[in-house]
Structures are given as C-alpha cells and as structure tokens.
Write a structure and sequence with these properties.
CATH topology of the largest domain in chain A: Peroxisomal Thiolase, Chain A, domain 1
Oligomer: homodimer
Shape of chain A: globular
Strand content of chain A: 15-25%
CATH class of the largest domain in chain A: Alpha Beta
CATH superfamily of the largest domain in chain A: Thiolase/Chalcone synthase
Helix content of chain A: 25-40%
Distance between the termini of chain A: 12 Å
Largest interface: A-B, 68 and 68 residues
CATH architecture of the largest domain in chain A: 3-Layer(aba) Sandwich
Strand order of the largest sheet of chain A: 1-7-4-2-3
Order of helices and strands of chain A: EHEHHEHEHHHHEEEHEHEHHHHEE
Chain lengths: 394, 394
C-alpha cells in the first residue's frame, strides 16, 4: 500500500524582537510542537530538517541541524539536514519530508526553521540580504533589498489594473486584525484603514503597514507516515496532498512574466501543485499566502486562481479573504502581522493550516477540507506551494 | 508499480586552487554532467539541489540554488533548494532526490554541490570553520578546526589498537596512487610510503599527507526515475538502493561512543543503511569512504563492517582497499587526493560509484554489483551513507 505523509503537530516560540539565540528559539518552538502531540516520544523522531538562511552570518552557526537536534533532544537516524531556500525554506523542507516519508526512508520527521535577525551588528542582516540576491548581476545593477523591488511591482500593478492604495491597505488591515488575537505574532494590534493609509512611507507607494517587519523566531511541525500518525493522535489527519516549487529564473533581467506584476512562475508552480494534489483553485477552503508586502498577496490571489488577473485588489477589498469570504487567507496574521523569520514562515503557515483542517484554529473556517500554503523567495525568483487535505490523494 | 531512483550521469570541474567563482565552477560541473548523458535536455530536469556550506560567507551568495539553476540553464518546477550538511551535503541531497523521485514529486533531478574556499580573505574559511561546530559549546572549549580533533582520534586508536604511523600512511599512499591518474583531482601525484612518512607534521601524529587539503570545486549528478532513466541511456542502470544519516549528538561532551575512536553513530547509520538496501557489509564490492584524514578511513572500514574493530590499519596496510583486495576504496583518489570542497564531495563519490557499477571506471573493480558511499560531517557529528546497486531492492 502506498505510504502517505500527514502533518500531526506544530508549535512556535513567540515571534518578534527576542533576546534569545537561534538555537534557544528553535528549542522553544520544538518544545511547543512536542507538547502539541503528547503521544510522541523524541526517540521516535527519525528525521530532522532545519530551515534557515542567515544562521551562518547572523548566528555564527553553520551546519545548524545537528546542533539544534541535540538541543531539542532528538537523535535522527534517517536524515538530519539544513535546508535553505530563503523565505521558502520551511515549506520546502515540508515537501522534502513528504518525499522521505512516502518513499519509506523516514517515518516521523520534525521540520523546524528559524532566524535570529536582530543582532548587535544590525548591518549583518542587510549585508546578508545583499548576498541573497544574485550578487554578480542584480546587486551591481542596484537591485538589493526587497522593498524597492516590491514597490516597483506595486506601481506596475496599479498602473495596469487600477489597483489602489486603499486596496493594498486592506491586505494589511485584514491580516493585522487576524494577528491581533495571535499571542505568538510579532504584533498584536488591530489596524484601521485610516491608520494604514496614514502610515509613513517606506518606498512609495509602499508604506509602513504594507511591509512585513524584521523578525526573530522559530517554528516546528511533525510530519508522520499515515499509520504512525493514526497511532499517535485522535485528531483528524491532515494529509500533505501535493506541492511544487518553481524556479524559472534568477536574475531580474530574465523575468519570466510579461511585466513585474505578471508572475508566470507562480502560475507554473500553482498548476503543478494543483495537479499533484488533484484539486483546483475552487477547491481551496483556506490559504496562507506570502504577504511579505501587501502587493504580494494581491498578485498571489490572482495567480493562484482565486480571482481573475488584475482583480486581486478588489477581491481583497470586498472581503473575500476574510472568514465567510471565498478564500479566507492568512487567518493567523500572515507575514505582515506575525513577522517573517525566513526559514520559519512556511512552517508557521503549515501549523495554521493544520489547525484549520482539524477544526481548532483561532479564526476557524467551518468545514475546511482542502487548504494551501504559498511562499515566494528571493527577489521573487522561486515559488513554493504545499496543498493539504482532510483526505489523501487517490 | 513502485517508483525507483537511479543515478544516470555525473560530471565535475577540475578541483584544486581555482581562479573561478562558485557559480562558474558549478556551471562547469553541470556542463560536464550533461555531456555525460547526451539524450537529456535541460528542460526535462524538473528538480535541482545545490549542496554548499560556505557560499554565504566565502562566496557572498545565499539562496544559491536558483542562481546556479539559471546559470546551468535549467528551470526546475518540482524543487529548487540548497542543502547544507557541511561535508555530507552532497550525499544528503542525493538521498533527498531519491525521496522526491520515489514519491512521484519529481522525475529527473540534478544534484550539484560545491565550494569556493580560496578567497582573497583566507581567514573567511577558518572563520566559517569555527562557525561549523557548535559555537556555544565546543568553540569556547577549544575545539575548533578539524586537524586537532582528528589527531586526538588517531592517538586514541593507536593507543588502544596498536595502529601505526605506517598504517595511516598507507591510506594516503593507496588513495594518492589512485588520484594520480584522475585529471579532475587536486593532486596528480604518486606517493611512496617513504614520502608519506617523511612529510612535515600538521598536528602530531598527523602529517601533511594524512590530511585532505583546502579545495575549490564542484560536481553534479542526475538522479532519474527508473523508466525515464531507461529511455535516456543504454548504460547499466545504477539504483539508489538505500541510505541513512545518523546524528546522535552535536557537542563533543555527548560523544556517542565509548571513546573517540569508537564511532557508535557510524554503526547506527551503517546498520540502518544496510537494512534499507537489504545488503550487508560483505556484499559491498567497492566503496568511497570519507578520508578527510587517514585515521578516518581506518575507523570507517571497521565501523562499516569491512573488517573487525581495531583492525582497520592492518586491513589497509595489507592491501585490502586496493583493486583485487576485499573492498577497493576511494578508487578515484578520495578526499586526500581529489580534495574536499565540502558540498561536492558526496557527489564526486557518487560519480565514481556510478562508473564502477557501469564498468567504466578508471580503476575498474571487475563485476562490481553493490557499492557504498560514506561521509562524515562536522566534528564527527553526523554520518551519511548511500548504497547503490545494479539491481533494485526487492
């Protein structure tokens, strides 16, 4: 019989500005995760992934996986590896865990991730950001930190489709208001449209609440083979039905779309992910998309097929991403409110989706059966999608 | 029918001290790999892993996978990720590719790896080395660079088992003499026992030829699903039968063996790998073990089960790792002669094993059917094993 991978537990440390090391935060997250699944003993965990990008530079720790495995108290005998896909490292590691579990190479894998970005040397983070793009090509041509790049993207979308500053602001308002109730989020703050519109500029047209913050944090989930999962928990099983990660270009000169607001590579990833999970965009009951900037979520709801191209702003403004709308999105606060410790973000998303499909989310989407997480990484060079369901693919 | 993963092509750039960037070397290696399999079009490659540890610090490039994928001319739509397990990154990425292919998430994956370690700032390499161990625990206690650690290990093995300096030297003599014929190796130099014994000290008892060098280099292989592999090549198929990666500890204070020359974690990895591949140590016809230091290979032949504990030195001295011996080892020169660009080493080993099982190696082991690669990583905190065969596991 085919082996299937399920996500059965998850946990996080408090995200924000932390006086804690990366290893400390990973330990907190793993403890929170293990407390979510009382039947699981650390010795049963045979695989471990840790997703991080800046650990070498900002935490002075390369080869983080064994260091963190020991601090967490597990002794993996199938796999113990660090994964780095920048902002999509966590979701990528979940896909890798799926492969190992389904192939029979591992039975129970902890997938964790995190970053320590507030350091005494603040320039380390920006220095690392400059090393995260293609440093031979884009950096010398002036493309470095993300805000200017996504500001250009926002301008393009506004020009072509009439997207408004108010529509961008609605992304932040909706997501902040979810995050206000999330004790692990960086910000617990309700946001009004007026506050969002009156915020100071970052790079026009993007203002403060259009941009996710710099964040310390870690998160962890358990991916288990179906029969082991059934032994370990009475909660509804959440199957990892499918996924994909597309990387069609790296340097900005080879952008795969017609223009900066046309994310052809996300469409490729979405098509492949939907096919692997045997579902379509209309089947998605709840989603977590990569709202690193408000404009990102606007374009993502289009390219993921939740609305027509160009209509993302109106879709969000009309309440379709709120509970009761067509596809509730970022129901735990998203990157905008929770923050974005790169390697941890896809794992945070997976935790929220697991809880939604098990009926135990803070803002519960009633009867949710199929769900999706999405990450972009780099200067929009990769897209990673994972699709979850209450039923396995048949 | 179960999906199976095969390794069907491989290539390397010249290893050594290179006036080339990491991305340049990865491109050279990928070109060499693609030329090894004329039927394969870059557009057919749907997955890409890049294994590297020091790219962030020494090459100022984080999130290397999409940058290198683009330079290589491939557009992955299943996976595109960087893997870091230090010295075992390459072999770990091969295990991950196996999982993706067998689970149906990918069909044809390029697994590449490399490091650029000679930089204008030579201290960057040593600085990164210090960040590669557990920097909270081992570094402040004086355990930093590998040579002193492996010198202690050698002293322990000599004291307990009577291993001699001559036996250590034989490891280097055998491996250098294989490497002398390998145009991609860092050193093409035959070595006599007298030269090895007369070499200058590094950390006693280890001398120059007991230690692998600092190396620039990259390597790449193609892992393909069985039916696709059959369409692409008429060469014998080389199946990835199984493997494992054990990480039982991180800090030296929690060493899992009875003493430094007792590698209990390697035995755990070996047992699990053999079980997954349904073979035992006596079935291995040819192997590539991690000879970062001569003492490493001595202990590895013991813990992998090729000879009894304590007899590794005599096993190698008596010629059992040469062609015609019980288990020819490091038949392309190993780390000692080829060099050790961390993320690339497991991939170099896989290329040599593939060629051995296809009957096209430089120093051919006649009729080889089952083969093994082994890597250790960090200050001996992880062991990774991959087992290959002319037949799949049944």
């Amino acid at each position: 019989m085919a082996r299937r991978a399920c996500i059965i537990a998850g946990g996080m440390c408090k995200w924000g500005v932390r006086e804690a090391s990366l290893v400390d935060m990973a330990q907190e997250a793993a403890k929170d995760c293990l407390e979510d699944i009382p039947g699981l003993k650390p010795k049963d965990i045979d695989g471990f992934f840790f997703a991080t990008s800046y650990a070498g530079r900002c935490s002075f720790q390369v080869n983080t996986a064994p260091v963190i495995a020991e601090r967490v108290g597990i002794k993996p005998t199938s796999i113990c590896a660090r994964v780095d896909v920048l902002c999509a490292g966590g979701s990528t590691a979940i896909l890798l865990a799926k492969g190992l579990v389904e192939s029979g190479m591992a039975d129970i894998v902890m997938v964790a991730g995190g970053e320590k970005l507030y350091t005494p040397q603040k320039w380390e983070v920006f220095y690392s950001e400059l090393a995260s793009i293609d440093h031979d090509w884009d950096a010398p041509n002036g493309l470095g930190l993300p805000p200017p790049f996504f500001a250009l993207t926002a301008k393009e979308h506004m020009k072509r489709y009439g997207t408004t500053k108010e529509q961008l602001a609605w992304v932040s308002v909706v997501n902040y208001n979810y995050g206000a109730e999330n004790p692990k989020a960086q910000f617990q703050k309700k946001l009004t449209l007026e506050e969002a519109l009156g915020a100071p500029p970052v790079v026009p047209p993007l203002t403060l609440y259009d941009c996710c913050p710099i964040t310390d944090g870690a998160a962890a989930v358990i991916v288990a083979e179906e029969s082991r999962a059934k032994d370990l928990t009475d909660r509804p099983l959440v199957y990892i039905r499918g996924g994909a990660q597309a990387s069609l270009h790296s340097v900005s000169a080879n952008w795969p779309g017609e223009h900066l607001a046309d994310w052809a590579h996300l469409r490729v990833a979405a098509k492949r992910a939907y096919e692997s999970a045997k579902v379509g965009p209309d089947d998605i009951d709840v989603a977590q998309t990569h709202d690193c900037f408000s404009i990102s979520e606007v374009i993502e709801v289009e390219e993921l097929g939740f609305c027509k191209k160009g209509e993302g702003g109106a879709f969000i403004e009309s309440g379709q991403t709120k509970i009761g709308g067509k596809v509730p999105i970022n129901t735990d606060g998203g990157l905008l409110s929770c923050g974005h410790p790169f390697g941890a973000t896809g794992i945070r998303q997976a935790i929220e989706i697991m809880k939604q499909l098990q009926g135990r989310a803070r803002f519960q989407v009633e009867g949710a059966e199929i769900a999706l997480t999405h990450n972009l990484s780099g200067l929009n060079v990769e897209h990673t999608i994972v699709i979850y369901g209450r039923e396995p693919v048949k």
